Amino acid sequence: MKKLINKPEDVVKEELEGMALAYPDIVKVHFDPDFVYRADAPVKGKVAIVSGGGSGHEPMHGGLVGVGMLDAACPGQVFTSPTPDQMLEATKMVDGGAGVLHIVKNYTGDVMNFEMAADMARGEGIQVASILIDDDAAVKDSLYTAGRRGVGTTVLAEKICGGAAEKGYDLQKLADLCRKVNINGRSMGMALTSCTVPMAGKPTFDLPEDEMEIGIGIHGEPGRKRMKLKTADEITEMMALAIIEDPAYTRTVREWDEGKGEWVDVDLADPPFKAGDKVLAFVNSMGGTPAIELPIVYRKLHEICEKKGLKIVRNLMGPIITSLEMQGCSITLLKMDDELIEMWDAPVKTIGMRWGM
Amino acid sequence: MKKLINKPEDVVKEELEGMALAYPDIVKVHFDPDFVYRADAPVKGKVAIVSGGGSGHEPMHGGLVGVGMLDAACPGQVFTSPTPDQMLEATKMVDGGAGVLHIVKNYTGDVMNFEMAADMARGEGIQVASILIDDDAAVKDSLYTAGRRGVGTTVLAEKICGGAAEKGYDLQKLADLCRKVNINGRSMGMALTSCTVPMAGKPTFDLPEDEMEIGIGIHGEPGRKRMKLKTADEITEMMALAIIEDPAYTRTVREWDEGKGEWVDVDLADPPFKAGDKVLAFVNSMGGTPAIELPIVYRKLHEICEKKGLKIVRNLMGPIITSLEMQGCSITLLKMDDELIEMWDAPVKTIGMRWGM
């Protein structure tokens, strides 16, 4: 295992120490339980947004904390869910009196622990709404998931809701917006190589020198298909068409119903993309892919979207939701409307994404 | 070779096509000869800044074009110098009537071609100053270099001079500032793994599973020493001390003398770092190193700087001057003063670095 680390068990702790030293104007770090939070938290009267999940996907989530995005992020160990006490303490730290939105990627551990943390926070008098992100069109269920995995759309939801929270959205309106982003977004990833979790010390999976995996998860979970290596254009086409031609995806998710005071089942249906839609196109590096390759993928994606009548009105390109040193990429398309565009364009100042300030 | 590319010979062209499609608000791309330039170029009355070099180091240089940084960048093929005609056409395109500064990394091909391009541009009535960056403290001479290689300080010079050009520095003052940045900066890199140039199709060098190379160049040029893999703390200490304890480095470089109307030899001496200095600390990923590992390096670098009496007043962390998918990192320290801090803080809007706008 070749990594710039000291002891494998210290990776997350030392990463957080480095972040605290490097970016004191943007974030503070709380240790034991571990979470990253806005340097100016709590922001009185603003709905706070908390997310989290296993580490190894940097800059998501700790690098997405700051003005205009997350108020706090709870990092688990690499590829391991954070614990309810991290989420609870983060929620209490950033609550500015207007409630807290939990943005939760659909992985069983994250879902369970965020639900527990939300219940505990409510027990302490904090209003909490929870919205699940389950945008990965690759597979119906996965290794750590009932239903689709939460991937690229998570980052877009964090940015868009972060912008809306700054503009004064109340908790209910912000939860509705977050749900809309999830419903409007779909993703697909692929890997050329595996990654190595520090504590494991060896690659998560084996992928022969002439093969790749389409539809892979961000922890190396099995995708749709292994196949011989193809060109960037062919790979982009496979992923983009799978996303664009994905039919309406209907399922039931659990959300907190503030009126009833209980968790309820909510039916969601993601509408398929159709000609005339405006979209945000997000080309993401899995971490180890060189920056020179992403525009090659974007170029083909742009061509496919044009052919399908989808107009790319905004984009994002880079290593934003990564899988350690995995080589590969993912594509996310998010159907945009005026509200989403306004919130996307709003100023943001985080370690990983920054504009307008 | 596992890459998200089509034909190896089309990598740079297709990368540029993708950049043009994705970032029309920031850059335009000129093909044949190839260069990336500011969307609003030429900026009348402002000194323009042009850099360039082999591709494969993205976001440097094309991703560093925009308001507050470069006016144009000339990409060669991967790890190959751009040609004089690229540099000449870029220089003509962005000249706003106040002259053009060429920021040149010290590699023989780059130096020779930029000198030729500058001479041709002068022949067409454009005032051109050229400043060489040779900040790599690892080795005295290298594979493609007489003298030290130009690495991380290049990016810092581009940002600082870009800010100063926006503030109205004239060509002479800007060249002096750029020379000061070069004199004040020192770097050192290391690799855990090789990279693979697309046209070569196989790794540039072999590095056994338990070894690393300290002082490596950004094209995989030999460094100071190969050794058994060490911890992040040990690696950081080796590089940081090599930089901090590097003695005054004196050498002669060629610069254009506008008064004499000829290229002249200029003697430069980089002063060593000393306790009490303010520094900018730049922890750079070679491309394939996961984001989670950089703060671990930064944390140790911060500790070493403190011990040595160097105060980190600004920092930069991320994959900025990369070597394709190489795993590893480099450290750059730049001695700062009030002028450098002011220009570093100035607004910038490029693909790879952005703040204040």
What does this structure look like?
Chain A is α/β, with parallel strands linked by helices and 357 residues long. Chain A contains 8 helices and 16 strands. Chain A has helices spanning 11-22, 84-94, 108-123, 153-166, 171-184, 232-244, 294-307, 338-345, and strands at residues 27-30, 35-38, 48-55, 72-78, 100-105, 128-133, 185-191, 211-214, 225-228, 249-257, 262-270, 278-285, 311-318, 328-336, 348-349, 354-355. Chain A has a 6-stranded mixed beta sheet with strand order 1-2-4-3-5-6, with helices on both faces. Chain A has a 6-stranded mixed beta sheet with strand order 9-8-7-14-12-13. Chain A has a two-stranded antiparallel ribbon with strand order 10-11. In chain A, β10 (249-257) and β11 (262-270) form a beta hairpin. In chain A, α2 crosses α3, α4 (153-166) runs antiparallel to α5 (171-184) and α4 crosses α8. The longest helix of chain A has 16 residues, at 108-123. Chains A and B meet through α1, α6, α7 and β16 of A and α1, α6, α7 and β16 of B.
Class of the largest domain in chain A in CATH?
A: Alpha Beta
User: Kindly state the mean pLDDT of chain A as a whole number?
Assistant: 97
- Oligomerization category of the chains in this entry: homodimer
Count every helix of chain A, treating DSSP H or I runs of 4 or more residues as helices: 8
User: What separation lies between the terminal Cα atoms of chain A?
Assistant: 39 Å
Give the count of structural domains of chain A: 2
Rg result of chain A: 19 Å
- Percent strand of chain A: 25-35%
